[in-house]
Amino acid sequence: MIDRFQYREDREAYSAARVKALEALLIKKGIITDKTVDTVLDFFETKMGPFNGAKIVARAWVDPSFKDRLVTDTPAAIAELNLPEGMAGAEGEHMRAVANSPDVHNLIICTLCSCYPWPVLGLPPYWYKDPTFRSRAAREPRAVLGEFGLPVPEAIEIKVWDSSAQIRWFVVPERPVGTEGMTEAELEALVTPEAMMGVAIAKAA
Amino acid sequence: MKLQHYLGGLEGLGPVSTETRVFVETWETRIFGIHTAMMALSSQLPLPPTPSKFTTVWTWADLRKGAESLNPFDYFKFRYYEKWLGGISGYFIDNGYITADELDALTEEYYSDPSKSVPAAGDAAIDNRVVQYLVEGDSPKRDTNVSFDFAVGDLVSIKNVPSIEHTRLPGFLRNKSGTVETVYDGAYVYLCDTGTDGVGAAMPVYCIRFEPEDLWPGNTEKNFSLYADLYSHYVEAPAAASAKQAA
User: Fold this and answer.
1) How many Å apart are CA B10 and CA B219, to the nearest integer?
2) Which of A155, B28, B241, B246 could lock onto B81 through a cystine, CB 3.0 to 4.6 A?
3) Which residues form the Nitrile hydratase beta subunit-like N-terminal domain (chain B) (predicted)?
4) pTM of the model
5) Residue B218: its pLDDT value, please?
6) Phi, psi of A31 (to 5 degrees)
7) Dihedrals φ, ψ of B240, to 5°?
8) A114 labelled catalytic
9) For the residues B220-233, what does the mean pLDDT come to?
């Protein structure tokens, strides 16, 4: 049996030690500082993340004209909102939103890598980066969505968007029924990263 | 030909992962942070110089080249951030920033004593630039005058360009036909010159709609469309494609 088909028994402990050694060497050599990695991680905790996307979607739900502008000129519509600076920053320089409707369900994929709209959604979850998902969603999206617990009837058209160039995509899911009396803040809580990439829909809590 | 360029449509893979976490091990956060810092400190960006000793170019293209050059078995075997750790460590070694020996030796030290901390050092200007990069980004859009050969609704053919190291043309779209859905405003560069593959310089980008039944005849699902954003170098008129076939 060749090593290619085996993992080290100490797989995670070894990687943890190796990445720490790499970070320590980069600090020692003056490439990054001892705060650089934490600075990046903090930015994704507080400035770029799915909390922004949830605000954008909730606004689209309460304001149909905003929703129209969002799918027509995504960056301009996002700039109307009071979100942290950087909404046209790294991996969000050119974004495009597509809206679900009773007739159309949208799914965002990246068959070549893992392109993802950082400012509004933060970092991609593991399912999105999984080579199996990236392979199968291109040819059999309904089967894949079924595995996510989202049956999409054949009468509903599925649009799969493959992010091969420099545009970053996200989905505006439909507003769940039974949420008519909810405030915008309450609506935000119903919007998940999965719904904003199309492997889920938003549900009334 | 690299399997990684041809993932779309691959069969026989089993169920998808539905893991919604971004990081499944704490160590993964560190390699993500290092990669993002490298992109921010990369020498081609028009950002203020810092005391960082990082003097070379590192972009997504470099990370992707590494992943695309892996043995396909390893590509499927290793988790996302395991591939990053291998690729990024290799880059620092290959470019002479660190040696493999010192990385191995220090790995052993942290392995034996996981509580040992990393050194405290560095100039805050480095971290300021990292934040500035995240906020400002690195727009690929250029105000270059380019000609748009296609309009919305046009039928187009996709070339089968010679991609050696890196490409932004998914394999399953090569030699296929589609319809232009969107002509994006302006021209877009790519992060590096992909050589005979043909992207890098500012050029139009089109969103093109494909019929899954054309892509995988008799072996796909009904009532769905596949769209892909493609650089114009990958796109040609159907007549040009037929002429090549006839020749």
Assistant:
1) 11
2) B28
3) 1-120
4) 0.97
5) 97
6) -85, -45
7) -65, -40
8) yes
9) 98
